[in-house]
Amino acid sequence: AESTGSVFFIDSTNNQFIRSQSSNDVAQSESMLLAEVGATVSVLLGFAPLTTLSAAGSSKLNEVLIPDPFNRPRAVFMLEVSGIDDPLVVDPKNAIFGRALKSSVDLGSSKAEIQLPDEEEVSVVSLDEPLGDYSEEDIFDFASWLGGSYVADAAKPFHGVMTIPLADADNVNLRMSEKAHNKFVSKLLALYCNIRKAMEKHGHLSKTLRRPAEIIMGSFDGIKVHNLQTFKTDMRMSLPCADKWHSYLPCLLGVVNVFCTAFCLCFRPRFLPIAKPFIFSLKQIKVLLEQQDRDGVDKLGTRLLLATLLKIYGSLQTAYGGQIVGVIVFNGVPQPESKTLMNVIYTSRSSPRWLADTKSSANTTLAAQVLVRRTLAWITGVVLLIATLLGVRSVLYINVQCQALHAS
User: Fold this and answer.
1) Non-local CB neighbours of 368 within 8 Å, separated by 6+ positions
2) Sheet harboring 149-151: ordered strands across?
3) What is the mean pLDDT of residues 64-69?
4) Which residues form the signal peptide (predicted)?
5) Are 82 and 219 spatial neighbours (Cβ–Cβ below 8 Å)?
6) Which of 18, 31, 318, 365 is most buried per CB count within 10 Å?
7) 172-212 pLDDT per residue, tens
8) What is the pLDDT of residue 276?
9) How far apart are CA 31 and CA 7, in angstroms?
């Protein structure tokens, strides 16, 4: 089966660069290729897409972008999220994804080639930069930024508990002493820090006379099932509807199941056919509870990421004054860290050094031409001056001769 995911084109809060979902049902029904997603990003940055784009691909671009080539944001926030198929399944009322233009995307095709003309005309900020060393103060700032809190452990550093509130009065408690919790928080913190660096760079670029286009791109692979399942106890107990007996119910059902089976086999074999449906029902209840518990854990981790993305996009909109859009690709299959779906390519253009050499050669040729013309002008002037002097001398000599003849 072909690998498919979903892509969300998130419009600006102040301007419209993307077609609205209600007026474009075709883009939702037809799947896009990664190359078409990359071409869309190139156009949003104000550049031409790849020349190899097919007519069908151009048609899909027209279904996504508003028909105004002079109204482009020239700034794109592009993120690849692996481990999630569709965020609307987890959070149907999400503020940014609920109003975004959604389309399925074929992940089995080639990479999303984003064509850029020159490194001097576009600023590329990577969100995949490693976090490096960080302090508990950074964790506290990040938790406060999300509207949560971080309570440090006085005995051991980096053993505190970070609590993040979600919608519907749900909370997520992350214990930094646990490896999976620590890794998940580190992933979110790295994304947060790289976004802050991108906004700082935008502040410097906005003061230049010729502001380049800007693309903020990267990937997030922190949503993984084997990591999220270790959040079971903390996340489940954070839910307001979760009781303590819920964690012991699967074990209790297992004990009852074993007891009923042993009793029927040892003491009342004739009751075994009657008890089989009851035992089977107990097994089904146990499986359903475990599945529900696992789904709840995964959804809480995903909702925490979506809440972070919502906060990030709001900050970007404020920093860029509404002149930025978001393109987020969701891939349900976790990708290796070395494999990404997006790639930036630069078109072949004359290098600045070659242009400088050409300009210098042209200036040398022009100077030689000016020198030749000035030399010829001076020579001509000298010749004319000599000829004039000779002519004046001849006229004066003729007058003197005439006067001498008349006198004699």
Assistant:
1) none
2) 149-151, 161-165, 171-175
3) 91
4) none
5) yes
6) 18
7) 899 999 988 899 999 999 999 999 999 999 999 999 888 89
8) 52
9) 10
